[in-house]
Amino acid sequence: MKKMLISDGYDLIADIYLANRDRLKTAKYVQTLLKYLKKSSSILDLGCGAGVPIDDILMKAGHSVIGLDISPKQIMLAKKYCRNGDYSVRDIAQLTHNEYKVEGIVCMYTMFHLPRTKHREMLDTYASFLPTGGLMLLSMGDREFEGEHQMYGENMWSSQYGTATNISMVKQAGFETIIDTLDNTGGERHQIIMAKKL
Q1: 107: which residues sit within 8 A by CB, 6+ positions away?
Q2: Do 12 and 151 touch, CB atoms closer than 8 A?
Q3: DSSP 155-184
Q4: Which end of the chain is least crowded, N or C, by CB within 10 Å?
Q5: Looking at residue 149, which CATH number applies to its domain?
Q6: How many C-beta atoms lie closer than 10 Å to residue 93's C-beta?
Q7: Can you give the pTM of this predicted structure?
Q8: How many domains does the chain have?
Q9: Residue 78's domain spans which residues?
Q10: What pLDDT digit, counting tens, does each position of 123-170 carry?
């Protein structure tokens, strides 16, 4: 039921979410990620949405992108706006260890739509996709919360821990933190983490 709620919700808000996406000033974190990526890296974008403004920046810089999202409407938009990306409708909670081999992972504004009791396991799975030195850019919750909330007029479900637990889980999954900051853009508040696999 929760997965259906999230999928249906993002289908319904796809256009308005895209129109307002730049309110979240994500591009500056992507630009930082670019400074660390090796030339022509492959990037897995988990919860890619419409691909803007993350995948388009990565591809313009010469990297390749695989994008996964649970919302068919979001994937349709990603294929429209980021034509060189490889996009699929997928529930990222179903990913398995070593299923992908990439140099970088992006997971922005997505983790908190998965049960927080699964976050540590998901981070282990992400780590299995990366080589030593591989990079991960993700957002996580700023405080403990689990339940439904409104997002552009539609019900959404979120589940998250606070910042200290998030960083602890990232380190336990075998990552060294490069960035750990609270971002307040767009009237929202998210913990932004960039980390390197040890």
Answers
A1: 45, 46, 47, 92, 126, 136, 137, 138, 139
A2: no
A3: EEEEEE--HHHHHHHHHHTTEEEEEEEEE-
A4: N
A5: 3.40.50.150
A6: 15
A7: 0.94
A8: 1
A9: 2-197
A10: 999 999 999 999 999 999 999 999 988 888 888 899 999 999 999 999
